[in-house]
Structures are given as C-alpha cells and as structure tokens.
Amino acid sequence: MEKKIEISMLCGFYGKLLTKKQFEFLNDYYNNDYSLSEIAENNNITRQAVRDIIKKGEKKLFEYEEKLLFMKKTLTQEQKIQSVLKELTKIQQNSSDKKIEHILDSIRKELNCLV
Amino acid sequence: MEKKIEISMLCGFYGKLLTKKQFEFLNDYYNNDYSLSEIAENNNITRQAVRDIIKKGEKKLFEYEEKLLFMKKTLTQEQKIQSVLKELTKIQQNSSDKKIEHILDSIRKELNCLV
C-alpha cells in the first residue's frame, strides 16, 4: 500500500490517540496536501519542527497498528465481505425467484454498511 | 452488558496498550477469577496496590474505547453478520437448487470467520 494512503488510513483508525498538533499536521500533510513549509508558515514554527512532529505522529500510528492490528483486521474483513457480495450475485444469476431476490437485496444492504 | 464481560472484552481489544502489570492483574481478576487478595499474595504487594493497578487499567480501557469505539463497532458488525446468516437460511428454505446451496455454504464459511 502507498505510504500516503496507509498513513491517512491509520490516522482514521488511531488519530484520536495522537496529540492535537500531531493529528493536525498529519492531516494537513497527508490528507490536505500541504507542504512542510506551508504548515510551518501557517503555524509560525520551523519546517524542521513540523517534520519532527509529523515523524513522531507517524511512529505512534505504526506502533498502535503493530499492537492492535485494527487496520489489518478491517481490510481483511472488507475483502471477505466483497467476496460474499460477489457470491450473492452468483445466487441471483441462478435464481428467478422474487422472494430470493428480495432477501438478497436486504443482505446486500446490511453488508454494504460494513465496507 | 455485565461489567466483568465488558472489561474482559475491552482487554481483548486494548490489552496490548496497558502496562504488563495492569494487563496481568486485570486478566487474573476478570478472566481467571482470582480475588484481589490472591493476586496481592501472589505478587507480594498489598491488596490496595492491586486494586489501584486494576482501577487504573480499567480507566485506560474505557478511555481507549471512548476514543476508538472498536468494541462498539465490532459488536454492531457481528449483529449485522448474524442477521445476514439468518437471511441466508431463508434463501435456503426458498430454494432446492444444489448450486445455490453450494454458494450459500461458501458464504457462510466466509461470514463465520468474521463473528
């Protein structure tokens, strides 16, 4: 997975465990595409200070994931659900029963909330 | 949810973020049914010290859940999957097609890994 996407996702999972500044800078840098210099200027601190805070935040995110594995578990789960959604399409292709179609719709709705 | 079960579950989610002692004592108290006095005796410390460590660990677990909501999300997800599994049974009851039965088995296997 590309680093930018990975950190952005990790922020979604564990961002609330970071300090306000760490979260803010990571969000500006990885989600809002600000440069280090822009963040530095907006916050009246040096580029190096921004870099240090971002690095520290990243380190914490990776440590949380290493311990808790929530992102890994969620991605695996989403894959399984996508695979189930494909299997449901196969059932639909093998049936013309309206009742079954109706049940399939209801299952899809439930599963789509999980991905 | 009963407090004992709740803390035991929270330990499963966030236990790795506790100190070794917090995790050990919470596990002894809530999962292995040791009393505070027994844990104190086994660790050569006072009953009050054990109590303090357990209380501090519990507080941290609740704080993590308040911020991250992984237990709440997991329980909601498990409910949805249980409901999907019930819906699958309805499809089976409305079909005698062997192909569909086979697909249903495969879906059940995928979903049972998630609960």
Characterize the structure shown.
Chain A is an all-alpha fold. Chain A has two domains: 3-68, Arc Repressor Mutant, subunit A (Orthogonal Bundle); 74-112. The first copy, chain A, is 81% helix and 0% strand. In chain A, helix 1 runs antiparallel to helix 2 (20-31), helix 2 (20-31) packs across helix 4 and helix 3 crosses helix 4. The radius of gyration of chain A is 21 Å and the shape is elongated. The mean pLDDT of chain A is 94. Chains A and B meet through helix 4, helix 5 and helix 6 of A and helix 4, helix 5 and helix 6 of B.
Number of domains of chain A: 2
C-alpha Rg of chain A (nearest Å): 21 Å
Helix residue percentage of chain A: over 70%
Helix and strand content put the structural class of chain A at mainly alpha
CATH homologous superfamily title of the largest domain in chain A: Winged helix-like DNA-binding domain superfamily/Winged helix DNA-binding domain
Give the number of DSSP strands of chain A.
0
Low-confidence stretches of chain A: none
Which secondary structure elements does this structure contain, and how are they paired or packed?
2 copies of one chain form a homodimer.
Chain A: H1 3-14, H2 20-31, H3 36-43, H4 47-68, H5 70-93, H6 98-112
Helix pairs in contact in A: 1-2, 1-4, 2-4, 3-4, 5-6
